[in-house]
Predict the 3D structure of the following.
Amino acid sequence: MPSWRCPPVESQDILTTPPPVTFTPRSEQRHQEFFYRVGLVYAVTRDVALYALESTTMAVQTVRLIDGGIAEPQQGKMREMGVKVDWADGRVSATLGFYDIAMTRVVSTPAHG
């Protein structure tokens, strides 16, 4: 069952800082991103099915960068594949899945100390 979504994403960072810091306390970014989720299920038998799924994600980061700007949103891609099995006329089921998750634009903060 494929699905697509393309919502406008707004991120706001409201930051209050004591003087003498001199950057605007409000910043705003607008992003237009395309997200998708596509999956496939193949019934090997009545009780065993193979599946695969791929999807993309985005998460707003509320981190202030060194230059005073707002970090771009994180982006990710997830791939999953596996097998689903039913036993005892569907009263017991199990899923074995394998994942690959890749994230980009991940901001990390420096260690202090």
User: Anything to note?
Assistant: The first strand starts at residue 3 and ends at 5. Confidence is low (pLDDT under 50) at residues 9-25. The chain has no helices and seven strands. The radius of gyration is 21 Å.
